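Q: Given only this backbone (502 positions), what sequence would you predict?
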């Protein structure tokens, strides 16, 4: 019981870190108004958190070995909770960004530490149940975020997006501090490890996240983006060189000698693209095309969360009885089907037109997560698990960051093209184009239309714009779904359980 209480407390801490990204994202307009943030700088409220988070994740192995699992988790939850209070008290953008950096850096450790605890604290069937709990917490946080954020901002104020972290944060610190005893701190490791690699790693990952966040909006050939890409390349090369040559590297890349770990990281990368892509594209469609508010968006997206809850015990039973390769194949096939299914949306697509795709993705997410996590971390000794968990979770975050950058680029470039194409089709009298845009089809008989008066143009223009955006979103759904489907080509390379892991 003591072990389970400690682990569930760690899972709650991880839940807080993931949820915080989603609830803030759904309430950025309220934060912008409250702090008088210029629109062109508003994205830094999220970018600051994500940049700090992605830097922290690969440092998990170093921190847990130096401070112990319990010590690292307690310190990070304390830092996350204190930074949440600072965010709520922010009075201007600079203060908010500084607090979000601390919050993201501390929160970035919580996810890989919680997943590594699964493989250090449990074995056998208990490990599968613990993986299921951690997976549900991670997935539900992403799904519930828009609903929780919309409810808080509608009934209270944006400050409570951060203040809600305080009570559970304090409780998690107490429970983890009293119940978790996995390992002992090794303070001597602090001086032995290659700390000179820290600024190189931070520069590499922060520049990468910055480019992926800003380049779709500013353009990939923008001079500032080119400079950041150069910095990213130089720092990345320096980090790789030091990690491969130093006797005690900051990040141990030796885990990548394991074929199954490499493949699990690849599937984690793909899952990140699918997970973050879906939770970004669907609210974008519902908000900009359908006109739903954040609370309604969250309510519609609850279909995915409800499916995950129903699927969790089923996935747990299957994970014990079915070959991991079959589960991965089924999970990623369902995920791909759910993504590709959204590629046929129209501006009139409503709740029921989006339901079966969410069900497919909800089932797929759970079938993807359990076997790939076991595949990645199940074969390492306890001391090596936190480092491997950090790398595994980093790949999921990178998949999400790169996926969102590709999505933003596709939507920005394809929306005007779809709009222009629809205008040409409407002028040619195509009934199918009129139906897609949302116009009555009686006058569209396949013959070119005559001159269109200004009043009609003014009426039709917003409808065409919405339809063009819908077409661009469909392109993004199809692209990311096809990427997930193609990932299954690597499935035969996974070694079966019991075979050599090299």
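A: Predicted residues:
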């Amino acid at each position: 019981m003591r072990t389970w209480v400690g682990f569930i407390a760690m899972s709650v801490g991880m839940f807080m870190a993931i949820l915080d990204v989603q609830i803030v994202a759904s309430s950025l307009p309220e934060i912008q108004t409250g702090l008088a943030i210029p629109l062109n700088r508003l994205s830094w409220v999220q970018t600051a958190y994500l940049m700090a988070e992605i830097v922290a994740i690969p440092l998990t192995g170093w921190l847990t070995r130096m401070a112990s699992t319990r010590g690292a988790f307690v310190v990070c939850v304390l830092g996350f909770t204190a930074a949440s209070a600072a965010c709520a008290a922010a009075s201007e953008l600079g203060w908010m960004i500084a607090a979000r950096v601390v919050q993201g850096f501390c929160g970035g450790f919580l996810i890989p530490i919680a997943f590594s605890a699964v493989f250090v604290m449990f074995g056998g069937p208990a490990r599968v149940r613990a993986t299921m709990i951690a997976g549900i917490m991670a997935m539900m946080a992403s799904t519930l975020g828009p609903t929780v954020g919309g409810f808080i901002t509608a009934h209270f104020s944006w400050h409570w997006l951060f203040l809600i972290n305080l009570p559970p944060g304090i409780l998690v610190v107490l429970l983890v501090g009293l119940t978790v005893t996995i390992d002992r701190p090794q303070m001597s490791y602090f001086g032995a490890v290659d700390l000179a690699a820290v600024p190189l790693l931070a520069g590499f990952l922060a520049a990468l996240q910055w480019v992926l966040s800003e380049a779709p909006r500013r353009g990939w050939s923008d001079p500032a983006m080119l400079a950041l890409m150069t910095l990213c390349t130089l720092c990345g090369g320096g980090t790789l060189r030091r990690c491969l040559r130093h006797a005690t590297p900051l990040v141990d890349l030796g885990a990548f000698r394991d074929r199954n770990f490499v493949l699990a990281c690849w599937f984690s990368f793909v899952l990140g693209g699918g997970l973050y892509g879906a939770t970004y594209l669907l609210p974008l469609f519902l908000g900009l095309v359908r006109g739903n508010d954040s609370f309604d968006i969250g309510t519609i997206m609850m279909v995915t969360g409800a499916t995950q809850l129903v699927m969790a015990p089923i996935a747990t039973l299957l994970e014990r009885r079915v070959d991991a390769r079959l589960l991965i194949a089924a999970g990623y096939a369902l995920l791909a089907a759910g993504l590709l299914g959204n590629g046929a949306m129209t501006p009139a697509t409503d709740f029921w037109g989006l339901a079966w795709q969410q069900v497919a993705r909800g089932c797929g997410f759970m079938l993807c997560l359990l076997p790939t996590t076991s595949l990645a971390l199940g074969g390492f000794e306890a001391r090596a698990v936190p480092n491997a968990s950090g790398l595994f979770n980093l790949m999921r975050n990178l998949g999400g960051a790169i996926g969102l950058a590709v999505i933003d680029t596709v939507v920005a470039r394809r929306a005007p093209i779809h709009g222009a194409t629809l205008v040409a089709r409407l002028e040619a009298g195509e009934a199918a184009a009129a139906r897609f845009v949302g116009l009555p089809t009686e006058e569209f008989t396949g013959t070119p239309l005559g001159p269109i008066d200004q009043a009609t143009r003014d009426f039709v223009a917003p409808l065409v714009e919405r339809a063009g955006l819908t077409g661009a979103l469909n392109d993004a759904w199809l692209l990311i779904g096809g990427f997930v489907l193609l990932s299954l080509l690597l499935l035969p390379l996974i070694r079966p359980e019991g075979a050599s892991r090299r």
